[in-house]
Design goal:
It contains three helices and three strands, in the order βαβαβα. By secondary structure, the protein is of the alpha/beta class. Helix 1 (about 25-30) links the parallel strand 1 and strand 2. The longest helix is centred in the last third of the chain and has 19 residues, at about 80-99. The protein is elongated, with a radius of gyration of 15 Å.
Length: about 100
């Protein structure tokens, strides 16, 4: 039995993978597993429309979405300062969109 003191969740990539599997089906699977949280990658501001749908559909199933900022970058060419700005810009766009 699940411990009520622990929020069980699933790590997924519904924005960057699982093409052909509707978000609704993915969330149904998460719920059916007994999880309450779905961790998802957010690579940039252009992911906000899909993230909005995920949040809406998750709420309808009693689930929470845990967005994780995962910018796309070239590890050989991106400086730490550029990466920090990239991460900040993505986070700022998410906070602005979802307040």
């Amino acid at each position: 039995a699940a411990d009520d003191n622990i929020t069980w969740g699933v790590n997924g990539h519904p924005i960057a993978a699982y093409y052909g599997i509707p978000i609704e089906n993915q969330l149904d699977l998460v719920r059916d597993l007994g999880a309450r949280s779905y961790r998802v990658d957010v690579m940039g501001p252009d992911n906000i429309p899909v993230l909005r749908k995920l949040v809406r559909e998750a709420k309808a199933r009693g689930l929470e979405i845990l967005p994780v900022v995962t910018p796309v970058f070239d590890i050989e060419k991106t400086t730490p300062e550029e990466l920090q700005k990239l991460g900040y810009d993505i986070a700022f766009s998410l906070v602005s969109a979802f307040r």
